[in-house]
Each structure stands twice: as C-alpha cells, then as structure tokens.
Amino acid sequence: MSSWADQWRKDFPALRPRGKGAAGYLDSACLTLVPRPVLDAMEGYYADTPGCGGRSVHRWSTAVTEAVEVAREEFGRYFGADPAHLVTLRNTTEAINLVGRGLGLRKGDRVLVTDQEHNSNLVIWQVLARTLGIRLDVLPLPEDRAFDLDAYRRNLARPTRLVSVFHSSNLDGRTLPARELVEIAHEAGAEVLLDGSQYAPHERLDLTQLGVDYYALSLHKMLGPSGTGLLYGAPGKLERLAPLVVGGETVAWTDYRDHEPLPVPARFEAGLQNYAGIVGARAAVQYLGKVDMDELRDHMVRLQRIAADTLSTEGVRLLGLPDHRARGSIFSFILEGVDAHDVALFLDEGYDTLVRSGMNCVHSWYRARGLDGSVRASFYLYTTEDEVRRFRDGVAELARLTQGRRKASPPTRAVPQRKRVRAR
Ligand SMILES: Cc1ncc(COP(=O)(O)O)c(C=O)c1O
C-alpha cells in the first residue's frame, strides 16, 4: 500500500530490499537512517578535499575550513540561530556535559531535572552533586497527564540556577511546553538547558525565538552521520562557559606559561574535527528542509493510530500518555510476562522488525517503578504504515504464544522481576 513515506524511502540505501525484503527499522529515536545526499557529501570530503580545517593553508585545507563554516551557516538557518552561537560537537551528551562542566556551578547551586531524563541529562548532575556539592532536584512528571506548569512554578520558588530537561522524551514521546517552561524559569531567575535530541528531528525550531539559554541536539537523530551534534547558546551565554576540552584549534597563541582562547564557538571545538560528519550533517538539514513538518506530524499520528491497535492485545501495557497524538514518534510498551529483549529478538527474527528494548537509558525511571524495561518502536519520515502493521502483528503473535505464561502466574507487577536484567 502506498504511503507518505514512499517519497523519501528511495533515498535511503539502508532501506533497500535485502534477503526477505527491507527490514522494518523502528529504532529512529536512537539513530536515524542516512539519505544518499548525506553519504555523497561525506564521500565528497574524503574523495575530493580530505584536508584538516583551520590549520594548513593549502587548497584542501582551505576548502574544508570553508565547508565547516558554510555548514554552520546552514545549521543557523535551519535552527533559527546566529551561526556564531552554535558549537559543533559529537552529540547531545557532549553538549550537556559542556554546559554542566562549563557553567562554573558551585556548592549549593540548584539544578532541576524531571524524573524522566535520559542518563545523558542526569549523570552529569549527579557527578557534579558529588564533586562540587550542587543540589540536584527531580521534578516528578504526571504519568498520564500533560506537564503540570503550576507544580513547576511552585517548585521554582526555591532559588534555582539551572533547569535542565528534555524537550521531547525518548521514553514515551511526550513533549514539554518549552516556551512556558523557559518563561517561568527566567521569571524565577533560573537558566534553561533543553535536551532537544528527540524534538529537533520532528519540528522546525526557532531557537532565538524560543528564548532558551542552551539547547543540545544530535544531528544523527535527524538524518546526519553518527557522532554529530550541536550546542546552541543564546547571545552572551557561550562566552560564559569554560571549555570542556582544550588544546589545538582552541587558542590564538600559547607561550610556555599561558594561552589566549579563541572566540566562541571555536574555543569549544578542540582538536581535529569530524569534517566528513559536519558536511554530511549539512546535507542532512538541507534534506530535512524539504520536509513539511506538518505532514511529518500527521504521518506520525497515522502510524501511532496503527500502533495503538497493539493495546487491544491481552498483556500489552502502554507506557506514556493515553492520547496517541501526544506520543510523538514513540510507542513504548510492556508485554507482561515477557522480557523486553525477548520481544525485540522475536520481532527481529520473525517479523524483520527492529525495535529498541530495555531501559532506553532512563534506568532511573524504570527502577523507581520496579520495571526491568520496555519495548520501544520509534518512527520517522521513512516509516510506512505496513511496517507498523507488521510490528503490531508480531506483538499480537508473541502475545498469543506466551498467553499461558500470563495465565499461569498473573502478574502482581507490570513485569515480573527477573534475575536476567540487562543494563542497557
Ligand atoms: C532524550 C535523549 N537525550 C539524550 C540522548 C543522548 O543522545 P546522544 O547519544 O546522541 O548523545 C538521547 C539519545 O537517545 C535521548 O533520546
């Protein structure tokens, strides 16, 4: 059956039929597939101008230096930011670490996160609590309702240095009301760092208008090459960060005692950079520029509607908001009595369907609920309705095959605790 996704699929070599057919890739929240223009841009770097940027003066090096700045301008146009306010990094994790380490937090400074943060937006604050004595507080999110702005406002009555929260969740796809969240934080005198790694692939951002202080995102979750990401800092904010990594290409000069850091963003981009990745990521945002995000959103809703059929299968329990329109591109569930990794392997082997399983790097949330993981299907522009139907049918089949398990021992909790807990 034809799908809105068909217009894009031909551009993605990983989706070519292989063996029995094309794999149903439902793990885009982890890493998106790469279209041909991105591969061509990367090959162009290695095949035509494989120089090191910013150093040598020969023609290849000059070409690379220019290509990186042209890419930064493209990112600026795409994300609604002055290119000088964008740092090219490896990923969201690195961007959050740069802010965490660079802000100059002191003992007693309060950082607020939600109870549903990816480890990349949790561990750094735990480390700083241990090493510097910052105060890390966790705001509980209502499990079946939208974000509670009043509770958030009340929470910020306590002096807070930084609110660091996800924009969209990798666990259940919900999106937080970023603009209100930023406004309320600013009224309370706090700065805001948004983890935009799951939001940026699905919506057109205007970072300047959003008014956020810092925004972290991963370009490999939006058709870019793996290991590419960005940190945005509002005017004047990057200048206040200490670099996370220092060395070559971050300084104007050194003598044996001292050095002068380059202006931002160069002072944060230490050592030889991922030039192929950066030019590939430029091609990725150019490609995304052709996508109508309203159409993409409608497509996600269509796919969520099909995935929601899974919920009528006995033993399947949804994680996340009941309204399928509020789940973005992510469908997370538990099949009671069956280990999430076993579900994923069954879908892979029997239904050519690739999903994520485990704790989605949000161990804190699962552990607090005594859960040992869930299955997550995540969609993007190339995902078809047929792929989601195949996924749904696979889950239904496995539920039938494992019915006896649930009957034999009715679960007293969502998933029986097992000895075999895989920490992923
Ligand atoms: C919400 C969220 N934050 C942070 C990250 C970390 O992203 P990266 O591995 O690209 O640094 C992820 C990755 O899945 C994520 O989903």
In short:
With 424 residues, this protein is of the alpha/beta class.
Any overview of this molecule?
The chain folds into 2 domains: 6-30 and 292-408, Alpha-Beta Complex (Aspartate Aminotransferase, domain 1); 38-288, 3-Layer(aba) Sandwich (Aspartate Aminotransferase, domain 2). It is 36% helix and 15% strand. The protein is built from 14 helices and 15 strands. The protein is globular and about 75 Å long. The two termini are 36 Å apart. 46% of the residues are buried. Pyridoxal-5'-phosphate binds next to helix 4.
CATH fold-level topology of the largest domain: Aspartate Aminotransferase, domain 2
In whole angstroms, how far apart are the ends? 36 Å
Measured on Cα atoms, how large is the radius of gyration?
22 Å
- How many strands appear in the DSSP assignment? 15
Give the helix proportion (percent range). Answer: 25-40%
Structure class: alpha/beta
Main beta sheet: strand number and arrangement? 7 strands, mixed
Low-confidence stretches: 410-424
Query: Reading side by side through the largest sheet, how are the strands ordered?
Result: 2-8-7-6-5-3-4
Strand content: 5-15%
Helical segment count: 14
Q: Please report the first level of CATH classification, the CATH class of the largest domain.
A: Alpha Beta
